[in-house]
Amino acid sequence: MTTFIVWKYDDPDTAARAAKVLKQAAEEGLVRLDDHAVVSWALDATKPQVKHSHAGDHSTGWGAFWGLLMGSLFLVPVLGVAAGAALGKMSKATEAVGIDKADMEKIQAEVRPGTSALFAVTDAADLDRLGERFHGLTGELIATNLTPAERTLLRHTFGAEASQAPDGVQR
Predict the structure, then answer these.
(1) CB burial class (10 A; 0-12, 13-18, 19+) of residue 73?
(2) How far, CA to CA in Å, does 156 sit from each of 18, 43, 150?
(3) N or C: which end of the chain has fewer CB within 10 A?
(4) In this structure, what are the phi and psi dihedrals at residue 152, rounded to the nearest 5 degrees?
């Protein structure tokens, strides 16, 4: 199953380090990495920097997806009501890959100045071995198309906060 995951980190640099770990794990066959993007938002910046991997056979398609997704997350809120229709169209497009309106709103709320996020589309992961690679890169799973049980396993494997319920609500 293709999995969409967004990990948020509490500083502007950790997502880039996590992306390097993810790419290395993909090279070693621990996960199939379809594509990924890193959002880094310096504390004093007005908007985040986005770096798309441009990897794989479908990089142009993913580039368009990441551009549309990042634009709707970080540009549309600035533009206001005039761009509301674009967000509605984006919601329909993202729901096809398992990202619903609630996920979009959570990403917008969580990825702020002073943070970073790793957006990844993966498949066929060996979660136990992959989780070992991310030891020390403590992040928060803020969006995914996984089931609640799969979310719990993913959080546990990657050392995410145990106090967070599978539905993403802090307990």
Answers:
(1) buried
(2) 17, 29, 10
(3) C
(4) -60, -45
Whether 9 and 115 have beta carbons less than 8 Å apart is answered as: yes
User: In the structure encoding, which two tokens stand for residue 146, read together?
Assistant: 């996984």
Q: Distance of CA 44 to CAs 6, 25, 50, 148, 149, Å?
A: 23, 33, 16, 36, 38
Distance CA 71, CA 77 (A): 9
Element (H, E) at 128: helix 127-133
Map residue 84 onto helix, strand or coil. helix
Structure tokens at 113: 């100045």
Fill in the amino acid letter for 42: A
The model carries a pTM of 0.76
Total length of the chain: 171
Hey, which residues does 37 pair with through a beta bridge? 52, 119
Tokens of 98: 């398992």
Write the pLDDT tens digit of every residue in 70-112: 777 776 554 454 445 555 656 666 666 667 778 888 888 999 9
Decide: helix, strand or coil at residue 122: strand
